[in-house]
Design goal:
- By secondary structure, the protein is mainly alpha-helical.
- It folds into two domains: 60 residues; 220 residues, MetI-like fold, CATH 1.10.3720.10.
- It contains 15 helices and two strands.
- A two-stranded antiparallel sheet has the order 1-2.
- A hairpin with a 2-residue loop joins strand 1 and strand 2.
- Helix 1 crosses helix 14 and helix 3 packs across helix 14.
- InterPro entries: BP-dep_ABC_trans_perm, MetI-like, MetI-like_sf.
- Belongs to the binding-protein-dependent transport system permease family.
- Pfam families: BPD_transp_1 (PF00528).
- Keywords: Cell membrane, Membrane, Transmembrane, Transmembrane helix, Transport.
């Protein structure tokens, strides 16, 4: 009787595990499915409440993609978003990596206090900062330029990534650096040749977070830029595809799908190292 009970329990455990897995996969994949099916649905199919919203009730259409690419500057917005994201990520790493390392190796009560203070600057809402920032942008003559975003975005990516990387650097034993310095390396040489290679996964985590924060930012983009050719995706899509009380749902979903799929692929490609190293950084 005992073996049969153990077998039944094993089958029940596997079934429960599979059910939980299916639930979460469905839950996480549903937004992408909804964006995809809305992209190719006709307006009559979308707005008819008698139709099944999860299936094609009419033949698919490419009309929404045509509106997106022909009636808006969506490709230019994608290029602007990619350019701003890459430059901001580079600036963020150049500032956050040495800052995070310095805070991780600093001794005394001030180290933890400075780390918390830097993170708290990330929590300041953009609605408070965009007015003084707009004055600075005007003084520098950067209105209607993507360089205004490149100047401002590090104000929230650098504090967050500094705090994040500080946790990763604290997880690296000091003994490794001391051994490298005994072998003749300087402090900077030990950092470059020992600490940086070990911290690649943590830096990748910071890159993903920084790029994601940049691509979804709206307040600064709509404040500093009025020329449509300089918009990013997060500003251009709602500005041109929401006209009064008319929402171009199909085109909006197409724009969101195209912009989100590359980021989703990057997340899933590095998901194992991303989750493991992020957890380690947060705990340490």
């Amino acid at each position: 009787m005992a073996p049969e009970f153990a077998r039944a329990r094993h089958i029940a455990d596997k079934a429960a595990h599979a059910a939980v897995l299916v639930f979460f996969v469905t839950f996480l994949a549903f937004p992408f499915y909804w964006m995809m099916i809305t992209t190719f649905k006709t307006n009559q199919d979308l707005y008819n409440t008698q139709n099944n919203p999860y299936l094609f009730n009419s033949p698919p259409t490419l009309r929404h993609l045509s509106v997106l690419f022909e009636d808006t500057q969506y490709l230019q917005w994608l290029l602007n978003t990619g350019f701003v994201g890459v430059v901001v990520v580079i600036i963020t790493l150049l500032l956050a990596v040495p800052a995070g390392y310095a805070l991780a190796r600093m001794t005394g009560a001030w180290a933890q206090t400075l780390g918390v203070a830097i993170f708290l600057t990330y929590l300041v809402p953009p609605t408070i900062l965009f007015i003084p920032f707009s004055r600075i942008i005007a003084m520098l003559g950067l209105q209607d330029s993507v360089w205004s975003l490149i100047l401002v975005y590090p104000s929230f990516t650098v504090p967050f990534c500094t705090w994040l990387l500080m946790g990763f650097f604290k997880a690296i034993p000091r003994d490794l650096e001391e051994a490298a310095m005994i072998d003749g390396l300087s402090r900077f040489g030990a950092f470059v040749k020992v600490v940086v290679p070990i911290s690649i996964a943590g830096m990748l985590t910071a890159v993903i977070f920084a790029f994601t924060l940049v691509t979804q930012e709206f307040v600064y983009g709509v404040t500093f830029i009025t020329a449509s050719s300089s918009y990013t995706v997060s500003v251009g899509v709602p500005t041109f595809l929401v006209r009064g009380d008319v929402y171009f749902w199909g085109s909006m979903m197409a724009a969101c799908l195209i912009a989100s799929v590359p980021i989703a692929i990057i997340y899933n490609f590095f998901v194992t190292r991303f989750v493991t190293d992020f957890t380690m950084g947060a705990i340490k």
